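Quarterly update, task 2.4: flavin-adenine dinucleotide-bound model.
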Amino acid sequence: MNVNFIGMTIIRYGTAEQKARYLPDMAAGRVIWCQGFSEPDAGSDLAALQTRARVSGDEYVINGAKVWTSYAALAKYCFLLARTGGPGKAGIAIFLVPMDSPGITVRPISALVGEGDLHEVFFDDVRVPGDCRLGQEGEAWPIITYALANERVGIARYAFARRVLDGMVAELKQGGRFQGAVVKARAGRALAACEAARMQVYRIVHERASNLPPSAESSLARVAVVNAEHAVADFGLDFLPETYTGRDFPMHLSHHERAIASGIASGAAEVQLNLIARNYLRLPSGVRQ
Ligand SMILES: Cc1cc2nc3c(=O)[nH]c(=O)nc-3n(C[C@H](O)[C@H](O)[C@H](O)COP(=O)(O)OP(=O)(O)OC[C@H]3O[C@@H](n4cnc5c(N)ncnc54)[C@H](O)[C@@H]3O)c2cc1C
């Protein structure tokens, strides 16, 4: 998360003091951060979040609950969204919260993607200094959009999918089972999906390297990566079902499990399709009854 989007966002929007405080440990790989966005009633509709930050002197007092927070039990800081103003996007602010602050409770959630990965995080009268706020109150949404655009492409999951696919094809060849048009065509289709995802992600890398503003391309890349992960997982299911035992093929099993969650984490793939329709294809939105 540090390299994916949190560090990038602090580099772009942090004060000189915040950069000096947070970036060296990130760059050196000495610290883990977590992302406090999702709430029980605010996932795809992130702007509905309810966690509140109230001004108290030169501090903020934070109350609320986050859910699905990856690595929260290991994290030293949380990149937290909380409401300082009214409803909707304009009322949200960003806080860089030390996870050892009194009033924070972290509880693990048992999940398919791995024990210890996901958590609920509760904030009960958590006090943070005012200089923990990233950006101004009421101006957080463009920063959040920038952070999300980076998050969607930050992990090279197409590369992991490709490695799993290569391993599966090698396994099938070894057993004399990579025979006939059907298995080869399906492997080819999965390989093409991995390559398409790689090319889409590289477009975003180019966008970032050229310092261009985030575009709908990051949603395209995200959907392409999800397609690649699903194509590889489906290929394994159909042609190498024994990988699901997990004993001999732990990497394949882990890929299958993560592929199930991949269309949900970092913003659901269906929501990315909506964004592509609106921001890339410029399609008209549906007629309201
Ligand atoms: C492995 C994993 C790790 C995660 N880590 C983190 C984390 O570290 N920090 C964090 O804050 N969150 C994290 N999340 C949460 C993730 O961001 C949310 O699950 C995601 O944004 C979807 O929100 P939701 O779960 O509330 O589902 P909902 O928003 O309730 O969506 C449910 C279903 O409805 C569909 N849907 C919703 N709205 C629309 C729409 N407008 N059009 C079409 N379909 C729609 C969605 O596609 C989805 O299939 C993680 C999730 C997973 C699976």
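Highlight for this quarter: The longest helix spans residues 181-209.
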